[in-house]
Amino acid sequence: MAGTMNNPEGGELRIGIAGLGTVGVGVLRLLSDNAAELAARAPKGLRVTAVSARDANRDRGVDLSPFAFEPDAATLARREDVDVLIEVIGGTTGAGADAVIEALRAGKVVVTANKALVAERGAELARLIEQHGGALYYEAAVAGGIPAIKGLREGLAGNRIVSVAGILNGTCNFILTKMKDEKRAFDDVLAQAQALGYAEADPSFDVDGVDAAHKLAILSAVAFGGVPDFSAIELEGIRGVRLEDIEMAEDFGFSLKLLGVAKPRAAGGGVRQYVAPVLVPQSNPIAGVYDSFNAVVVRGEPVDEIMMRGRGAGEGPTASAVVADLIDAARGINPPLFGTLNAAAATGGGAAQAEAAAGEAVEGAAERRFWRLLVDDRPGVIAEVSQVLSDRALSVEKIVQQDADGSRAHIFILTHAAQRTQADEVAAALARLNCMIEPPAVYAVEAL
């Protein structure tokens, strides 16, 4: 629900910034560099009064002397001269989360880029707003500078949303792009991404799909109502993607992308949410989104298809989203927290949605699939594979055999649409064949 916003002085919003890393410093620079534009667009003045970070003396390239310094972010959130807390520390627990909780308990406005906190503790944050009358803005938590939340919640408010999907992690998109363009293996490109700062020393958060899943949980809640339900997301990353998958997918007319997808289930209620590497037809605009760019595709009725593309991370794009939320707060624009929020949704909407989804058979809508099999290169193997598919009534659109290393071969198969349970049975049967060297790799074809 829309909350009230404490502002004792009335004429300006006094801002505390928790976190002075890349984004926090970017917000300070943006507020300074675009001061004239912001003054014209915000009916209230925007004044930073205090900041918080672990080290007060570190040189960050900006002058911090005009601001009070608090080493503890939660203390910053409680300050009398802070009406709006900008939290750019991150994490579901710890300093950033504590500061957000403290600010909402005090009925203050919070602007955050903390996707993990919103995705995993969204119901708790909603209850605090319900109880104390604060407000939470989180545009910067999803897709950096792309106005995905505003686009869904406000620009498409008159539509029935059919699906929302996106390239939600720039690191993974960078890796898949380099693999395709430069014919390199996953491990090699990952090392380059780490050297360039796109991926952390421990890249699990990105390459295993967790970062994308946090963003998808938020988008899904905005699109379909309730609160974010991170635990309901089916999750698969890109560690298993091989160069030959990308190359043959292209030959078949597809691009391989890590997508987050949310759409109502075919039956049984609820919303299916998944993050996985999938094949997208090359005719779809999202297939052409490369490098570290993000994109969000929304299908709605009556608008049909909308695609938003841009930088998904970094100082400038994320600071842009933070300041856009700040201007909304100054204008008194405070839409519902998620797609539809009331007390019932805040206390149990996500759980109810997950329970409804669990009651449905897992297959959902039928999907085409792309298969890679690594087999012994000997006569009769294609016949053995074909027999498995025939026995389980899974029909083939296209099949290609390609030499792997002289003694082994790859078999690539595009199958017609089938339920997931049927595909799982085929995968299990194929894995039992004596000719199989490793379990089959299977990718869904996502038409969007």
How would the blueprint of this fold be written?
Layout: E1 12-18, H1 22-33, H2 35-41, E2 45-52, E3 68-70, H3 73-78, E4 84-87, H4 95-105, E5 109-112, H5 115-132, E6 135-137, H6 148-155, E7 160-167, H7 170-182, H8 186-196, H9 204-207, H10 210-224, E8 234-235, H11 243-251, E9 254-264, E10 271-281, E11 293-301, E12 304-311, H12 315-331, H13 343-358, E13 367-376, H14 381-391, E14 396-403, E15 408-418, H15 420-431, E16 441-444
Parallel strand pairs: 1-2, 1-4, 2-3, 4-5, 5-6, 8-10
Antiparallel strand pairs: 7-9, 7-11, 9-10, 11-12, 13-15, 13-16, 14-15
Helix pairs in contact: 1-12, 4-5, 5-10, 5-13, 7-8
Task: Explain the overall architecture.
By secondary structure, the protein is α/β, with parallel strands linked by helices. It has three domains: 165 residues, Rossmann fold; 159 residues, Dihydrodipicolinate Reductase, domain 2; 78 residues, ACT domain (Alpha-Beta Plaits, 2-Layer Sandwich), CATH 3.30.70. 38% of the residues lie in helices and 25% in strands. It is built from 15 helices and 16 strands. The chain has a six-stranded parallel β-sheet, sandwiched between helices. A hairpin with a 4-residue loop joins strand 14 and strand 15. Helix 4 runs parallel beside helix 5, helix 5 packs parallel to helix 10 and helix 7 crosses helix 8. The longest helix has 18 residues. It starts with 11 loop residues before the first strand and ends with a strand. The N terminus is likely disordered.
